[in-house]
C-alpha cells in the first residue's frame, strides 16, 4: 500500500503543477520556482537545484532552491561559455561542468563558491525556438553518497520537458504581445487602415474561443483576410508538413474533393522561397508542375483567376501555413501595395494565433490521453471493469447526443465517463477484489471512492470528469451518495454516466452474478429490485434508453466490446 500512496502522491503533485497554474499570466520566476519545488519533492536523492535560461544574448538564472538566488543573479555568464548543446540530460559532478574552458577564472571561482558544494548533479537542457535553451539542474549535496536512480532520471526528464514547453508558450505570448503592439502602431500611423484594423481586432477575438473546431477556425481566419483585402474574390488555406500540402479551407473555390487530401508541396509552390509573391494565371504554373491527372482535379476544384497573392506563415519547425488570395478572371482590379502590406501584417498576427491554437489542441489531446491511461489504471484496481469503462463511455456519449447537449460537452463526457470509478485507486485492492458480501463498514469504505476522485481530478479542465466521478452515485430521488443530491442538482454528465454505468453493470457478468438480458436489465431499472433502483434516474434519460434500446444494443454490445 505504501507504493500505491507514493504513486498517488506523485500523481497529485504533477496534476497540481499542470492544472492550478494560469499558463498565460503566471509569473515565470514563480512558475519555475514551483516547478523546481515539485521536481525536488519527487526526486528523493536531490535537495537543491536551479533553473537558468540561455539565449544568444545572455545566460541567466530564474529560480533556485538550496543556492542563494541573489548571488546567482550576480553571476554574469555569457552564452558562449555553455558547453552543453541541444536537448540533453547528463549526470555530472556539478553545474560547473557546464562551463567551457573559455570561461574566465574569476567567474569559475565565483560560480564554484555558489554551486560547487555538491556530490552529483543531474543537468538537462531543452532547446527552444530561436537559439534559446532552458537548463534545469538538481543536486545531491556534498557528503550524501548516493546516485540518481533510473526512476529519478525519468522524472527529471519529464519536468525538463514541462519547463521547456512553458518557456515556449511564454515566448509565443510575448511574440503575440509584440505583434499586437505593432498593429496598434500601424493603426495610429496609417489612417487609411483604421477601419480595417478595427474590423480585424474585433473579428480576431473569436480566435481565442477553444470551442470552435479547427476547420471552422480556419474558415474564420480566411474570411478575416478576405475582408482586409478588398480586391480578392477567392481564397484558400493549406497546411504544409514536410513535402506534403493539404488544403483545409477555401472561399469561392469548390475544393471539397481535395480537402484533407495530401498533395505534393512542389506542385503548388515555386522553387525559390519568398515570403509573399504575386503570380498571374496560377493555373498555367500548376499545369506545368503537376501530373496531368492531378491537374484535371485541380482545374475542376479552383476557379479561373487573373492574379494570385501567395504567402506562407511558418508556425513551427514542422508546420507552415500557405495562404492564397485570388482575383477572379476578367476583373479589372489589381492587388495594391497596401494589400500586400495587409497580408504581411496578417501573416504575423495569424502566426501567433495559430501557434497558440495548435499548442492548445496539443495540450487538449495530452489531457485526453492522460485520461485514457488513467482509466486503464482504474481497470487494474477493479477486476470487474474489463471493457466496462469503454462501453460506459460509448453509451454515455450516445445518451448525451440524444439529450442535445453541446458538442464540446458530449466530447468531454465520452472522454471522461470511463473515469467514473477513478477514486477506487485509493481503495485497498483486496477490498475491491473481495468475492463475499461486504460488511457495512466495508461498503462505507467503497463508497468513499466518489470523494477520493477529487484528489486526482482538479482544475478547470477536469470539471466534467470530476462531476462524473463524484456524483455518479447520486440519485434522481435524492437517496444516493455521497451528498444526497436530487434531480437537476446533479450535474447532467453525472446523471448520464450513472444510467450508463448501471445498465452496463446489469448487462455484464460480475463476481456475484451472471449477465442479465436486456429485458431483465430494463425491468430492474424501471421497476426496481431488492436494491430499489426505481426512481434513481432522470425520466428523460429513461425514455431515451427505452425508445432507442435496439440501436444502443447494436452500438454498445458488439462482440469486440464484450
* Class per helix and strand makeup: alpha+beta
How many whole angstroms does the radius of gyration measure? 29 Å
Total domain count: 3
Read across the widest sheet, the strand sequence of neighbours is 8-7-6-11-10-9
| Contiguous uncertain segments of 5+ residues | 1-5
- CATH class placement of the largest domain: Mainly Alpha
Q: How much helix, percentage-wise, in residues? A: 40-55%
Give the overall shape: flat
**CATH fold field value of the largest domain:** Hypothetical protein af1432
Structure notes:
The protein is an alpha+beta fold and 562 residues long. The chain has three domains: 2-167, Beta-Lactamase, CATH 3.30.450.40; 190-359, Beta-Lactamase; 382-561, Orthogonal Bundle (Hypothetical protein af1432). Helix content is 48%, strand content 15%. A six-stranded antiparallel β-sheet has the order 8-7-6-11-10-9. The protein has a five-stranded antiparallel β-sheet with strand order 2-1-5-4-3. A hairpin with a 4-residue loop joins β1 (48-54) and β2. The chain is flat. Residues 363-557 form the HD-GYP domain. This is Metal dependent phosphohydrolase. It comes from Gracilinema caldarium (strain ATCC 51460 / DSM 7334 / H1).
Essential attributes:
562 residues, alpha+beta, Beta-Lactamase, Metal dependent phosphohydrolase, 48% helix, 3 domains, disordered N terminus, Hypothetical protein af1432, six-stranded antiparallel β-sheet, 20 helices
